[in-house]
């Protein structure tokens, strides 16, 4: 299994981004709830779902080991905080009819991820890869200048996930264990808020009916599965590749916002769309060319 993951780490990360690209549809089903309550439910039910998987697969002991390792536990705690900020602000954007604004955050994220990869992992980029980033940046700047204001919300959402990616690269625990532990740290606050909201009549029981109540426990499933793909895949590919593949996520989000929820695609976003896909194609082509060059050099040696 691990050999497959090492060979197809990029595919695992890509599957994660595809899942996230369609998540706005899910959160829209419960947009009558307070975004903080949705976030709390997402954290709490992720712990439950991952905990059940740990018990079924016999990996509960590995979770205990991760908690006993102070360095590992600290990394997972900060990873949990980073992804909590990311989730919370993104849910806020979606339920307030700003799906396209949320997608802008993830268009920015690869630039932050690749920058952090350079700082912390000393990853070097080829000239063509740098050119691809410049093309993507041009598209992002087109949106910023067209709207005439600095997108603080998008920047924080994008940066928080870039930080999360950087931390997860250094986590030793396997995907299921790390996802469980990072959510476990946040679960007491999440549960406390849910109990408080229900007591005040602002929780799920007051806003949802019948089958709608299933959306909250299922949020643990739709949250954990992409994170498992990401946690496994990111360890076996470069941060730069993980960053550039991220463009699939916001492109899908943007299409959902336009085609499903009727949000307007202005000319600046059309420029962004074209620039980002040109950058993605150029980066992946350059990455494959670089890999083939390494294989040829290895064979000659």
Give a written overview of the molecule.
The protein is mostly helical and about 300 residues long. The chain contains 15 helices and no strands. α4 crosses α6 and α6 packs antiparallel against α9. The N terminus is likely disordered.
Layout of strands and helices, then pairs:
Layout: H1 2-7, H2 9-21, H3 23-28, H4 35-57, H5 60-68, H6 70-95, H7 99-121, H8 127-147, H9 152-170, H10 175-199, H11 204-207, H12 215-234, H13 239-245, H14 248-260, H15 267-300
Helix pairs in contact: 2-12, 2-14, 4-6, 4-10, 4-12, 5-10, 6-9, 6-10, 7-8, 7-9, 7-13, 7-14, 8-15, 10-12
One letter per element, helices H and strands E, the order comes to HHHHHHHHHHHHHHH
**Strand percent estimate:** under 5%
Largest sheet: none
Mean pLDDT: 83
Head-to-tail CA distance between termini: 30 Å
Backbone structural class: mainly alpha
**Overall outline:** globular
The radius of gyration computed from the alpha-carbon positions, rounded to a whole number of angstroms, is 20 Å
Name some characteristics of this structure.
single chain; 301 residues; mainly alpha; 15 helices; 83% helix; disordered N terminus
Give a brief description.
The chain has 301 residues and is an all-alpha fold.
């Amino acid at each position: 299994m691990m050999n497959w993951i090492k060979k197809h780490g990029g595919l695992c990360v890509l599957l994660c981004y595809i899942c996230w690209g369609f998540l706005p549809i899910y959160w829209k089903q419960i947009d009558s709830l307070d975004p903080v309550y949705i976030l709390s439910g997402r954290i709490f039910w992720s712990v439950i779902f991952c905990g059940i998987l740990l018990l079924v697969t016999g990996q509960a002991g590995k979770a205990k080991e991760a908690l006993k390792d102070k360095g590992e536990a600290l990394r997972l705690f900060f990873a949990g905080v980073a992804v909590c900020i990311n989730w919370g602000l993104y849910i806020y954007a979606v339920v307030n009819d700003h799906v396209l604004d949320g997608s802008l955050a993830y268009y920015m994220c690869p630039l932050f991820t690749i920058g952090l990869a350079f700082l912390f992992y000393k990853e070097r980029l080829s000239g063509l890869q740098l050119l691809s980033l410049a093309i993507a940046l041009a598209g992002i700047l087109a949106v910023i200048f067209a709207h005439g204001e600095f997108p603080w919300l998008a920047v924080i959402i994008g940066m928080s996930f870039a930080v999360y990616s950087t931390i997860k690269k250094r986590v030793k625990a396997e995907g299921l264990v790390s996802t469980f532990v990072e959510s476990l740290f946040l679960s007491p606050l999440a549960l406390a808020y849910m109990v408080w909201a229900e007591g005040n009549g602002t929780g799920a029981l007051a806003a949802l009916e019948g089958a709608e109540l299933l959306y909250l426990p299922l949020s643990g499933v739709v949250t954990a599965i992409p994170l498992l793909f990401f946690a496994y895949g990111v360890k076996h590919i470069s941060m730069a590749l993980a960053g550039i593949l991220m463009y699939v996520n916001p492109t899908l989000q943007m299409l959902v916002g336009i085609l499903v929820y009727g949000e307007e695609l202005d000319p600046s976003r059309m420029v962004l769309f074209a620039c980002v896909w040109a950058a993605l194609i150029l980066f992946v082509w350059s990455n494959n060319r670089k890999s083939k060059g390494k294989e040829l050099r290895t064979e000659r040696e």
